[in-house]
Amino acid sequence: MSPKASMQVLSVASEAYPLVKTGGLADVVGALPHALAPEGVAVRTLVPGYPGVLALLGDATAVHAYDDLMGGPARVLAGTHAGIDVLAIEAPHLYRRTGTPYADAQGRDWADNGLRFAALARAAADVGRGAVAGYRPDLVHAHDWQAGLVPAYLRYGAGPRPVTVMTVHNLAFQGQFPASLLPRIGLPAESFSVDGVEYYGAIGFLKAGLAMADHITTVSPTYAAEIRSSESGMGLDGLLRQRASAVTGILNGIDIDVWDPARDDRIAARFDVRRVKARAVNKAALQAKLGLDVDPDALIFGVVTRLTWQKGMDLLIEVLPRLVQCGAQLALLGSGEDAIAQGFAAAARRHAGRIAGLIGYNEDLAHGIQAGADALLVPSRFEPCGLTQLCALRYGAVPVVARTGGLADTVVDANEMALAAKAGTGVMFSPVTADALTTAIERTVALWADKPTWRGLQRRGMATDVSWTRPAARYAALYRTLVEHHAQ
Ligand code: ADP
User: Fold this and answer.
1) Hey, which bits of 387-474 come out as E strands?
2) Are residues 283 and 235 in the same domain?
């Protein structure tokens, strides 16, 4: 195959931006088709037909039908949205519900999630084997546990199969279901083994994908190494060590058209690396919007996150008094656990004008924080890649991050030697404790006080390539190697 010959890839996931999004997974799955097109890779994206997805697809055409897909009739619909070639599984018994892709309005996981995502994988395997007339992908790329059974259905089915790649976006979510589900999801009894889908007496969707995919990728080189250790492997490290030669870390990029401070109509004033000073308008707008004191001299730490233990938000709450004492402000945007939201709400009451934010999901404010905050805090306990620090680099908000996973791979710590060499794009700290976070906040305040140094951090950050160009080339090269090897 010549280097840029066209290749067909079926990408399979539970979310894809802008069709449906709850987190970074959607950003990545939504960006890959655009990023890979210039590499000669044509991507079709298979997602569950949640009501919102079907509404966006409009008059999609049915390209495959099931009398019974995990308990009811279903169709695979083909359509396009926002330049993405979409296949959606229309299966009302599985997906026609209000709530998130995974849970009801009260946040309780759907009881039949095992069936719902087995259906996604089943359909992917069928499409992978040519169920849609005129379409036979060279490779099926499965994302996270929701697509973890794709390699299993392909392995235990008959006939030639495409290459499989399993990408781990977050090892913390593994998709474990009772063994009794096995006959209902149409996998043979023999699949219930250590090198099959069995995982500590249950069915492990992600485990199955990791055990049976031809290749495994994860979203940063550091996370690829971390997940092979017992501290970070979340029970799957043994398997990942065994498969070490088939594991690759490829960093995520961000969509630099969606995240472009020079053309962003969600922010008060547009700017670029030559007009960094224009950020001041966005800073004042952010302070006014959130009810922070409008003070150009107060360093604003921004946060855009899910409110969970993973993201270190409990530690941030603990150190807020010190952050305020340093003269800084906090602008928070987050959705997630109630207890954490309440912790921030209490701090905002105690430090009115210094700590403020919005609990919820709000893309406009996410852009407003990246454009107006001086620094962006990401104190994650673990972070497979992290996207918000990439947005921050592009928007001139200096990232202050934990030294873990993709954060360690994307931010260059502005230590003394780095600064002497005119390098450094942010502040990095470890271990992820309240003390180390406090020190990082103090270091950031000291750097902020030195304006030429601070400008240097911002400029270098804004000049960093956070696009999909390099990662897409790496995916394309990996796909080609795997497909060529498979054909031999
Ligand atoms: P994760 O996928 O673990 O939540 P990432 O940093 O990989 O974290 O991706 C988070 C994505 O979701 C980013 O695009 C970020 O801007 C967005 N995001 C996170 N929380 C919010 C929120 N409350 N409102 C709007 N966007 C959010």
Assistant:
1) 398-402, 427-429
2) no
- Say yes or no: 247 and 168 in one domain: yes
Residue 74 Cα, ligand 1 centroid: separation in angstroms?
A: 32
Kindly report, residue by residue over 350-386, the tens digit of the pLDDT: 999 999 999 999 999 999 999 999 999 999 999 999 9
Structural domain boundaries, residue 141: 7-253+469-487
Cβ burial of 178 (10 Å; 0-12, 13-18, 19+) is: exposed
Looking at the structure, tell me whether residues 151 and 214 fall in a common domain: yes
Q: Which atom of ligand 1 is nearest to the CA of 334?
A: 23
Q: Are 437 and 315 in contact (CB under 8 A)?
A: yes
Is 266 a domain residue? no
pLDDT digits (tens, 9 = 90+) for 281-301: 999 999 999 999 999 999 999
Contact 219, 228 (CB under 8 A): no
My answer on whether 79 and 186 are in the same domain is yes
Tokens of 88: 């959606």
d(C-alpha 451, C-alpha 291), whole Å: 26
Nearest C-alpha to atom 12 of ligand 1 is from which residue?
A: 23
- Whether residue 20 contacts residue 52, with contact meaning beta carbons closer than 8 Å, is answered with yes
DSSP letter, residue 106:
T
Find the residues whose C-beta lies inside 6 A of ligand 1: 23-24, 27, 304-306, 333-335, 361-363, 366, 385-388
Ligand 1 atom nearest residue 306's Cα: 20
Residue 260 is assigned to a structural domain of this protein: no
pLDDT digits (tens, 9 = 90+) for 7-59: 999 999 999 999 999 989 999 999 999 999 999 999 999 999 999 999 999 88
Report yes or no on 197 lying in a domain: yes
Same domain, yes or no: 229 and 294:
no
Both 189 and 287 in a single domain?
no
Residues 451 and 473 in one domain: no
* 95 and 150 co-located in one domain: yes
pLDDT in tens, 77-124: 999 999 999 999 999 999 999 999 999 988 899 999 999 999 999 999
First vs last C-alpha separation in the chain = 12
- The Cα–Cα gap between 36 and 83 comes to 13
**Structural domain tally of the chain?**
2
Q: pTM for this one?
A: 0.95
Q: What is the CATH number of the domain that holds 365?
A: 3.40.50.2000
Give the residue, out of 388, 394, 407, with the most ligand 1 atoms within 8 A of its beta carbon, to mutate for a pocket test. 388
Q: Is residue 261 part of a domain?
A: no
